[in-house]
Amino acid sequence: MRPKVGTFAHKTGDLAEMVCSNSFRSDDDERNAVGLLHWEMRAAGSLVLEMAGRHRLPAGGALAVDREAFSRDVTAAIRANPLISVVEGEIASLPEDGTWIVATGPLTSGSLAESIRVATGAESLAFFDAIAPIVHAETIDMDVAWRQSRYDKGETEEERTAYINCPMTREQYEAFIDALLAADKTEFHEGETAGYFDGCLPIEVMAERGRETLRFGPMKPVGLTNAHARDVKPYAVVQLRRDNALGTLYNIVGFQTKMKYGAQTAVFRTIPGLESASFARLGGIHRNTFINSPTLLDDRMRLKLRPNLRFAGQITGVEGYVESAAMGMLAGRLAAAEIRGEALPPVPTTTAVGALLSHITVGADAKTFQPMNVNFGLFPPLPEARGGRRGRTDRYKGYTDRAKGDWTAWLSGQASAQAAE
Length: 421
Description:
single chain; 421 residues; alpha+beta; Elongation Factor Tu (Ef-tu), domain 3; 2 domains; three-stranded antiparallel beta sheet; 14% strand; Methylenetetrahydrofolate--tRNA-(uracil-5-)-methyltransferase TrmFO; FAD/NAD-bd_sf
């Protein structure tokens, strides 16, 4: 519907606009579930992962991108495809006839959300998502801050210095927590409840759970050495990650917030190194809508009550850019196969894509269904896998090795079926 109908969070009319962060998280495809998902999507020819690779920024072991260039080129590729027509405008109700994929994202318009509610016969679920602020790099005091990725991760010097770190003493941390807790916050509208997704909690909510919560979360001081005082271990560290290719913008990692704008500038400028910070964007909060997929969708992502409609992306109850894009990619393949009269075999649940699909369609408890990132807890156990923390590294490698083989076989089966036609 953009740019004709905007949202609170989006700033452009481009496709695949990244709002909350510029990171697709870990790119480790051997011992990390989201890195494995990257691998599977690349193997399937994902446009999103192709463009992410083209506009990759140094971020240690993470896959971070220049968000504006990424979105621009995804949009250009879609518009240049002769088989695709891009029609701008709001769809206010679910179509009655034809084959459709509903991938409206977390900010589904009110009228369409109401149409979905009526069609499903169930109340839409919702949680609140928060946006982290972005700082102009030139306003960060590098006499206080230093560049280093946690544990010096990365194969190049650029990757090993991809983050800017602002150290805090115990006294500075305690003062920051006091200011955070006392700051003016955004109020919810009547009837709304703060059902946050735990992987994207506002920092104030984390601080309310305990004064040390942030120090063991986004502000943990481990894996870092202060370049200005190597013998002094920081009590806490605020990290900023590069947000564009020019390196002129940095987002404050994990600092999603629902503080009011005036409070944000006051509180964030108490962070050592950010006393004179200028903000390109302040944080915000918005409502994300998702359906109770375990009760509403079949194993082919079709709405049980109206199987000509598929749902995909974050509205299905997956959380994260990559997970949302993966479900869109899968919905497209399933819809195309159905139209062509092909009988695709079930997606292996041993793969990252299959594990996500299984979770949102049959694996999750509908009564407590909440958005979920991909994680190895969604995968079927490995036979005779060693348990406990000591066996975790080998176990994760076992998950990814098994998944790669099964995903490759699933894709090969589709290619063989199409070649035989």
